[in-house]
Please model this.
Amino acid sequence: MASQRLQTISLKVLIHKKRNEIVMAEADGDFVDILLSFFTMPMGTIVRLINKLPQVAIIGSLTTLYEAVENLEEQLFQIWECKSMLFHPRNPFENECRKLKLSIDDTEPIKYYICSDWNCSRRENGGLYTTFKNVSCKCGK
Ligand SMILES: [Zn+2]
Model:
């Protein structure tokens, strides 16, 4: 069971009530870091997370494209793991994002997989690795 920690983030907003607009916002560094972390997320992750919301928002043709690819048969991909790679792309800043007070990215922590063949995975010029489970190695294993 995941533990939940209560976190607070300070945000002061000055609103122009007649125009229903935010005139000014004052936030601490944590809020700014969270806001800027959204720019590090791959588009596939953003669309996937938005689709989880109870009231689905539509991001133009991205939502349509996502649904079309989601409905494609796995046989149409070079290897079936390609579909998983498309829907669970890695954020290059995921380690930094995990340290934030609030992280909306639900992507599992990165894991590295190597070839099951000891000689193949420990070659002199560096063995191959992947971040996706059950992907075949170049050697076929
Ligand atoms: Zn191999």
The pocket of zinc ion is lined by residues 115, 117, 120, 137, 139, 141 (CB under 6 Å). Strands lie at 11-16, 21-27, 113-114, 129-130. The chain has two domains: 29-109, 111-141. Residues 60-70 form the longest helix (11 residues).
